[in-house]
Amino acid sequence: MTSSGTNSAAIEGDGAAEDGATEIDATENGGSRDAASADGAPSASVVWATAWELLLPVAEAPARARGRTLQAALREAIRSGRLARGTRLPSSRELAADLGVSRGLVTEAYEQLVAEGYLRSGRGAGTWVGAAVRAAPPRARDLAPRSPGARADFVPGTPDLSLFPRAAWAAAQRGVLTELPHQALGYPDPRGLPRLRTALAELLVRRRGVVADPERIVVVSGVAQATTLLGFVLHARGARVIGVEDPGSPEHGTLYGAAGLRTVPLPLDAEGLAVGPLRESGVRAVVTTPAHQFPSGIAYSARRRVELLDWARAVDGLIVEDDYDGDFRYDRAPVGALQGLDPERVAYTGSVSKSLAPGLRLGWLLVPESLAEEVVERKRTMDLGHPTIDQAVFARFVERGDYDRQLRRCQRVYRERRDALVSALAEYFPGAAVSGIAAGLHVIVVLPDRYGSLERVVERAAGGGVLVRGLARYGWGAEGGVRLVMGYAHLSPARIREGVGVLASVVG
Q1: What band does 285 get if pLDDT is binned at 50, 70 and 90?
Q2: What letter does residue 369 receive in the DSSP assignment?
Q3: Where are any strands of DSSP class E within 280-428?
């Protein structure tokens, strides 16, 4: 395989090199003579010796694969810097003898790498590592959030990933791969597979009381993408600000900011988002968590829901409903979604992050008809649609009742863990109050004043290997005692009790 304008004699310089040019001379026992590179690089024999082990698999490779293996090994040695630029390579005859391969195989490898720019050669001058390649960057890092290894991590919002239904999911995956037609592997409808949108519509009507037309459901990679999609569409329509709950998710500022919107924090009262400040703010779009407000833990009252819808109709506005954990209510049946009261004023979004696993990156956005076309077009230009196989697997999972079974399982386990946390707090922290409805994956705990400041509690807890967060982190101060947001879903009852006991010992 000879590149244009290059031949094997020019690449090798073998006759000239072996007749007198200075080159590494690999001997039968593996030794070599030192030779300085043309541009003053370190001793070539030393450099070559450090890269030699990368070529050893060539001799063990199947005969048909040796050429590709040699080329790959040389590329890796050059990319990694083990063969530095300016290093002179052995002649094809010497390298072939050392590796036990044909000289033609080595010559072809040299020619290919010259053509790609890894090597350079000149007639009668031998073959050298070229100057175009730079050492490879460090290997890929894993930037996924990880628990720091605390004795007990009460950070909220984390589900128990060990509850993921591996067997049922694998069965659904096998079924999908067997039945999925070839044409379904092309670019999907940017809204999502019709099969999944139909299954989601039935699920959401039944479990969350929404008004769900499959034509207005968009499958997304979680609430974060739904948020960004809506932000882009609102910005294109002239919006520059959007209201958010205070306290609320700290991610809203970043996500809407990426779409060009500024977030305006709006206060809560005992019934939900306070309508007076909302009207005074001048915003025409607001983000809410009415089923189980994050992080305060309250549920919006019926009166407040009606007032919010009245506001949206009066200003021709939009309410974004983030139903992040609406399926998990432990003291009664979950309250239906706000969207069911006025589907043209509410954009509804949810995901499987709390019920299955956030790593699946699967969610849904149910949009008003007036926004549907723009949202779908933005979704199309953003990623050309969600992965087809993942959608088909989840559709089958929902259709066969596996998702309902998973929700019941999680609800049972999380209710037990919430009870364990409330019981442990009552035992170890007399006078502490747990607020918020019995729902979701976290509680709000108010410690008596005798425990000191929030900063002291958080710092001393961390010193004891217990991670907790204050409500102030999400926008509210710590009036009336130390207010902690404590997650429990990912901790066993035994670990919950142990963690609360350690917390009491270090902050008491």
Answers
A1: very high
A2: H
A3: 285-288, 318-322, 346-351, 363-366
Buried b / exposed e over 382-399, threshold 16 CB at 10 Å, is eeebbebebbbbbbbbbb
Q: Hey, what long-range contacts does 112-118 have (CB within 8 A, 24 or more apart)?
A: 112/1, 112/3, 112/71, 113/71, 113/74, 113/75, 113/78, 114/3, 114/6, 114/11, 115/1, 115/3, 115/6, 116/75, 118/74, 118/75, 118/78
Q: How confident is the model at residue 59 (pLDDT cuts 50, 70, 90)?
A: confident
For residue 273, pLDDT over 80 is answered with yes
What pLDDT is recorded for position 11? 44
CA-based nearest residue to 164, from 397, 416, 453: 397
Distance between CA atoms of 73 and 82, rounded to whole angstroms? 11
| pLDDT the model gives residue 432 | 94
Instruction: Output DSSP code: residue 431.
Output: T
Task: Tell me the mean pLDDT in the region 212-241.
Answer: 97
Is residue 491 within 8 Å of residue 417, measured between CB atoms?
yes
**In the block, which residue shows the tokens 């001058």?**
125
- Virtual CA dihedral for 12, 13, 16, 19, nearest 10 degrees? -20
Closest CA to 17 of 117, 89, 71: 89
- Amino acid at position 302, single letter: A
Distance CA 431, CA 428 (A): 10
265 preceded by a cis bond (ω within 30 of 0): no
Residue 120: strand pairing partners? 128
Q: What is the mean pLDDT of the chain?
A: 88
d(CA 145, CA 129): 40
Cβ atoms of residues 118 and 78 within 8 Å: yes
